[in-house]
Amino acid sequence: MSELRHLLNVTAKRAARYLESLSQRTVAPAPEALNRLKELDHPLPVEPTDPARVLALLDEVGSPATVASAGGRFFGFVVGGTVPAALAANWLAGAWDQCAGLFALSPVSAALEEIALGWLVDLFGLSAGTGGAFVTGATMANFSGLAAARHALLAQAGWDVEAQGLFGAPPITVIVGEEVHASPLKALGLLGLGRKRVIRVPADGQGRMRVGAPPRISGPTIVCIQAGNVNTGAFDSAAEICSEAHAAGAWVHVDGAFGLWAAASPARAHLATGINQADSWATDAHKWLNVPYDSGIVFVRHPRHLHAAMAFSAPYLVQGEGREPEHYTPEMSRRARGVEVWAALLSLGRSGLADLVERTCHYATRFAAGLRAAGWEVLNDVVLNQVLVSFGDAETTRRVIAAIQSDGTCWCGGTVWQGRTAMRISVSSWQRLKPTWSEALQRCCGLPRQKAIGGNSWRNSSPLLLLTRRSRSSR
Ligand SMILES: Cc1ncc(COP(=O)(O)O)c(C=O)c1O
Predict the structure, then answer these.
(1) E strands in 373-432
(2) Which protein residue's CA is at the shortest distance from atom 2 of ligand 1?
(3) In whole numbers, what is the pLDDT of the chain averaged over residues?
């Protein structure tokens, strides 16, 4: 066996062992594991290190210091795991080491990107002819969609923004909801459109733009709406906003980092009604599709605008007959993310994807029901995979969150929702609940334990349980 083959086999065994270990460990890494990271911090040796030794060190010191977000008990932020086909495809694509920028550099990546984009356009109900591109995440997808919008609006006003920049350009009005995610604002800042010069439309209790509240639109305008608020999961009223915006000649961009996937589930697609009338969309594959980080996708109804915003030329860069991926992305060289998206979609199929979305939404509903039954206040309408819960005052809620995180059975983060400190539960992993986990979930919900949970002491001695009881009795 060649040394390389041996290294890859050993690495595969290490990776499998890591994944198997996830059900037995705390979600957050133990303090000792974090402490051991110091072992990696030494001056770069002059002499080479055997690759097997490099991998052993990475696994022995690095693996315990990971957050076990791949394991299905991580409910923080909006973080998926990795479905098996996507992980395996990621390994193979790593071996391929393809530069996905040009067809000439990777015909297979270019082909898989186009196929996956076509499947997604169909799954999301976007109109035929919609184009797109694979980027690092929703923030770069927002950036790319908004860059296409900037191009289209200014070209219509007779201004070539790619050539001339924004100095002296006609101003673009940007309208966002009061509860806009920080990501489109960051993208607007990068595009010279400003994070703060946006017009903010008041939001309702779920974070949706209030109907009838958007200002009268005149001149080049982008209306940026949400499919899935990061805290509540709520959707802006896309059909109404799109029809008003389009009547005034505005461009509608959708931040659908996770919510866009609702359109792929017959049971949740109603939430996304009208979303397909927009002009550009940003989403993540590393969230709900459960492919490895990093992976985002932008879609643009008329891809020529994305092309105009991103295309470039240089004498040594070949231009083939077909679609050249790097003419649709901010990057030139980049890894072949479309491979994992294609693999995840093929392995799940339409029904598997719908089931993944529906199952996670169902778990969120169960969380919310358990929390309400235990007497806690759920702050949002649980329409998707997000739950917001208050355990009383801000300090008590923060104590419960800290206890959950240190207990290690699962991991939930905090937020402040419209002035209330709350715990966020975001169910995004493809992993099915196992009986032991549902007991953990019940504990997480503050419900009495049905029966003793055998095995690990970290499962049995939940400070969460004590804290939630204490905080309940102290209300
Ligand atoms: C609604 C929304 N938009 C954008 C983002 C940013 O996504 P990314 O971190 O992949 O850039 C997130 C992340 O949670 C989000 O929930």
Answers:
(1) 377-378, 386-390, 413-417, 420-426
(2) 257
(3) 92
